[in-house]
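Quality-control log, excerpt.
Job 1 of 2 completed; input and output follow.
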Amino acid sequence: MRTGILGASKEEVEHILEDLKESSRETIGSRDYFAGSLYGQDVVLNISGWGKVASASAATAMILRFEVDSIIFCGLCGGASAELNIGDIIIGSKFVQHDIDAQPIFAKYQVPPLGISCFKMGPDFKKEPTYFKADPVLQKAAFQAAQNFVTNNINEDIPTDLLKQFNIIKPGICEGLIATGDQFIRSAEKMNELQSELPGLKGVEMEGAAVAQVCAHHAVPFACIRIVSDKADHSAVIDFAAFIKEIASYFTRGIVRNMLNHL
């Protein structure tokens, strides 16, 4: 079994890459793929770059060239739920592209041609968004891995004083909807719109739904692990560079380590 691990930026998966053993590197389309052993498992790791096209391209190469049996995406996101705080962990259960809008031919948030065209309105016509789902086995494993990390490993990996600098005592863990788009959500107005039209929304980011769609097309199990770095409406401001280097990169490594150890 071979697992693909994706992150949008080097900083998000830096410590995972450091732990990769007996690795080889292959460059495809100017993007490096590192194959090797990670915590006893056969993996391929790639830094996709930000956005839907970059991440979808990387996922496709992982599936077609490296024949991975599953893909795990890990990194940061904006929190889209009032109860979430910086440092909380979201395990994606389903994914939607919030910037796709082909009205009136298709309903808003539907992915053509996967949705039902408005020109075929009838008893089968649906206006629901196109949701791509996480693999339930991987989702459960990711959630349990996050719990294990928070309960048993977080203080081993990260000094308590450093966690306190970001007001992180014990990160919350939740599962739910993640919305993906090629834009950085930075206004309360936009966030309110997404929350009203996408009930149960937990996080916003720029890659998850694109990778989920590629995995769905190829019948490859998919999981997504996100660390909340901001409130998406910028109501809370942190040193982003310090957070990703000192906190988030350890979170992703710790959760992936727990996940691979128990798969």
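Job 2 of 2 completed; input and output follow.
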Amino acid sequence: MSAAPWAGGAFGARGTCVLAANPGIMTLDGTNTWVLREPGARRSIVIDPGPLEVAHLDAVAAAAGDVAVVLLTHHHADHAEAARTFGERVGAPVRALDPGSRLGSEGLADGDVVTAGDLEVHVVGTPGHTADSLSFWVPSDGALLTGDTVLGRGTTVVAHPDGELGAYLGSLDRLHALAAAHEATAIWPGHGPVIHDAVGALDFYIAHRRQRLEQVEAALDTLRDQEIAVDDLPRRVVEVVYADVDEVLWGAAELSVRAQLAYLLKR
């Protein structure tokens, strides 16, 4: 995965990434708003309008032109905060799995196909990062738009308790099978740079999650004989498993550890 600076831009024949100016620990370089349009077509599909920042929405509107529909990968504010405002501005519905994120009556569900002229965007249910997480498959460009399920740099947080690790692992397996079967060449993520080896990135994500689970199990064995309150256990596990990670990231790591502990408890 690339560590080079990321600024968005045009990818494939149909994708344009407009990068929001909201960089941070959780958002990397900022939120990627994706504009999809069939070559030569007038109408576009916008995915994840991002934060409610006027300059960003101006840039998205300029890139998108005539918007047929706005789609959301999930409800987190860095992806969805501006969705209603942007939809009203361009006169387009907002479709999402979460009813509270929609503008208009039509939602989104696994297996749906959203069109704008000849452009087809296939909806893939990928819960785990959040319960309402979706990915989008654009067969004509060989691209998977993964929101926060797969990032362009590093790994994502399973946002316990809304997110759930068992579901997340299943989603990674599903994306891997889809990428392999359809020879997907790219991941267009919700944060960070485009990945040009979709199967390789998913192999890495799956192996990383399995490794972290093994590390958490080993940490639990190490801590077993210590008297630790239940509420304190996730942080103590973080201190063992993420000892080599900057402590500024430990809060996010604790969310993932809580998801891992919940997963192990069910096994």
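Post-run check on job 2. The chain is about 35% helix and 20% strand.
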